[in-house]
UniProtKB/TrEMBL annotation:
<dbReference type="InterPro" id="IPR038460">
    <property type="entry name" value="AcetylCoA_hyd_C_sf"/>
</dbReference>
<dbReference type="InterPro" id="IPR003702">
    <property type="entry name" value="ActCoA_hydro_N"/>
</dbReference>
<feature type="binding site">
    <location>
        <position position="317"/>
    </location>
    <ligand>
        <name>CoA</name>
    </ligand>
</feature>
<dbReference type="InterPro" id="IPR023990">
    <property type="entry name" value="Butryl-CoA_acetate_CoA_Tfrase"/>
</dbReference>
<dbReference type="GO" id="GO:0008775">
    <property type="term" value="F:acetate CoA-transferase activity"/>
</dbReference>
<dbReference type="GO" id="GO:0006083">
    <property type="term" value="P:acetate metabolic process"/>
</dbReference>
<dbReference type="InterPro" id="IPR046433">
    <property type="entry name" value="ActCoA_hydro"/>
</dbReference>
<comment type="similarity">
    <text>Belongs to the acetyl-CoA hydrolase/transferase family.</text>
</comment>
<feature type="domain" description="Acetyl-CoA hydrolase/transferase N-terminal">
    <location>
        <begin position="2"/>
        <end position="187"/>
    </location>
</feature>
<dbReference type="GO" id="GO:0019605">
    <property type="term" value="P:butyrate metabolic process"/>
</dbReference>
<dbReference type="Pfam" id="PF02550">
    <property type="entry name" value="AcetylCoA_hydro"/>
</dbReference>
<dbReference type="Pfam" id="PF13336">
    <property type="entry name" value="AcetylCoA_hyd_C"/>
</dbReference>
<keyword id="KW-0443">Lipid metabolism</keyword>
<feature type="active site" description="5-glutamyl coenzyme A thioester intermediate">
    <location>
        <position position="242"/>
    </location>
</feature>
<dbReference type="InterPro" id="IPR037171">
    <property type="entry name" value="NagB/RpiA_transferase-like"/>
</dbReference>
<feature type="domain" description="Acetyl-CoA hydrolase/transferase C-terminal">
    <location>
        <begin position="276"/>
        <end position="432"/>
    </location>
</feature>
<feature type="binding site">
    <location>
        <begin position="217"/>
        <end position="221"/>
    </location>
    <ligand>
        <name>CoA</name>
    </ligand>
</feature>
Length: 442
């Protein structure tokens, strides 16, 4: 029944991208879901197109449109969240960051933004006429609702996934289908955990109880904690996360995850997008215990917080003595993005028995090798505030953990200086005195 409609809509990549016009806004790619054939076909149209805006994020494979257009005259990348490749594009003037509270992204698309074409990669159509979004559910359904044209590139290697809602699109809503064959998925290796990461993770692990519901961010420290959980005595854990990574598979294989104590999606691992190794993609394929949802479900603080003992673990770049957290920029230079960090900081604190952790090494070295404190009297000029002072709960470095909730400015300064690197504590006290947030004790 649906195969006849499928065949009518099947075209080459070059034919499909003819629907794209100069000035269009294209919802294009996210993480491991880059539509490679469509990208290459669009790049071949470079000379006849101008001011085409591509939207996506966390790109982990090359983008032909951008590589063929170093001046940005034809294609501009607009990123919801910067990966390493995108940071370089920003410096070249080819890419720009879109400030984001990730749980709100589908609403941005429905209410605020122009979306002319959706061009994304999906899993093969099932017998009911549906294409699973696979490793990226996130915001695709919302974009499709608003688009003038929808192009799907079918990757035989994209895992079809189970979901709650908005995790698939029906052939009736699609304009063009491009068959990509077996193209594999880009691999995002797990960030290697340093000894410092492990030291920080050791302060967090005792705070996690049996039956807790886990959200992990990306990076070495969350990866270290995931491995520690897999090797721990914890049991009956649940998963409700923005990003699904290999660490969660390790926890499942170690028998730590059942999801049976969750208040929502009992027995299921909830995610908005996934990126990792082939082990992760194989684990996700047609797995009833995995549930892909749009990000306004996974990240909405009210929804996520309905799971008791929600534990949120995320990284940061710097924090000032009043508790403001920057996790996305070094001064005015964008490094990544806000993503869903604030969503889960709020959700975990509002969860019954939940806890939110912001984890960061106490220091970093600049290009000349000079050591600097990540705990600062004032934020570096231009740094973006990811988490405001009242929202931050636990802050953890290799020197300890402190809970900032309810503390006055002098108590916050005292607590944060106590987990700063010892070499910087006296200077931080002097800064706190100058800022009138240091209380001398008798």
């Amino acid at each position: 029944m649906y195969m006849e409609e499928y065949r009518k809509k099947c075209v080459s990549a070059d034919e499909a991208v003819k629907v794209i016009r100069s000035g269009d806004w294209i919802e294009f790619a996210w993480a491991a879901s880059m539509p490679g054939l469509l990208d290459e076909a669009l790049a071949r149209r470079k000379d006849e197109l101008h001011d085409v805006n591509l939207r996506g994020g966390v790109i982990i494979s090359p983008v032909a449109c951008l590589e063929c257009d170093p001046t940005g005259e034809h294609f501009t990348w607009n990123s919801w969240h910067l990966g390493g490749r995108e940071r370089k594009l920003v410096q070249n003037g080819q890419a720009y960051y879109i400030p984001l509270k990730y749980s709100e992204l589908p609403r941005y698309l429905r209410e605020n933004l122009k979306t002319d074409v959706v061009a994304i990669q999906v899993a093969p159509m099932d017998q009911h006429g549906y294409f699973s979004f696979g490793v990226t559910v996130s915001h695709y359904a919302a974009a499709i609702e608003k688009a003038r044209a929808v192009i799907l590139e079918v990757n035989e290697d994209m895992p079809g996934v189970h979901g709650g809602y908005d995790h698939a699109v029906h052939i009736s809503k699609v304009d063009y289908v491009v068959e990509g064959g077996h193209r594999g998925l880009p691999i995002l290796p797990s960030a290697s955990a340093s000894e410092l990461d492990r030291q920080i993770a050791e302060y967090v692990l005792p705070e996690i109880m049996d039956g807790a519901c886990i959200q992990l961010g990306i990076g070495g420290m969350p990866n270290a904690l995931g491995k520690m959980i897999a090797e721990s005595d914890l049991k009956d854990l649940g998963i409700h996360t923005e990003m699904l990574v290999d660490g969660f598979v390790d926890m499942v294989e170690a028998g730590k995850v059942t999801g049976m104590r969750k208040q929502l999606d009992r027995g299921r691992m909830v995610y908005a997008f996934a990126a990792g190794t082939q082990k992760l993609y194989d684990f996700m394929r047609n797995n009833p215990s995995v549930a892909g949802y749009p990000v306004d479900y996974t990240n909405h603080p009210f929804i996520a917080s309905q799971n008791d003992q929600l534990i949120s673990i995320n990284s940061a770049l710097e924090i000032d003595l009043t508790g403001q957290v920057c996790s996305e920029s070094a001064g005015s230079t964008m490094i990544s993005g806000a993503g869903g960090q604030l969503d889960f900081v709020e959700a975990a604190y509002n969860s019954k028995g939940g806890k939110s952790f912001i984890c960061l090494p106490s220091t970093y070295k600049d290009k000349s090798g000079q050591l600097h404190s990540r705990i600062k009297g004032l934020m570096t000029l231009g740094s973006a505030i990811t988490d405001t002072r009242p929202t931050v709960q636990f802050v953890v470095t290799e020197f300890g953990k402190v809970n900032l909730k309810g503390l006055s400015t002098w108590q916050r300064a005292e607590a944060l200086i106590s987990i700063a690197h010892p070499d910087f504590r006296e200077a931080l006290i002097a800064e706190a005195q100058e800022l009138k947030i240091w209380r001398k004790k008798a």
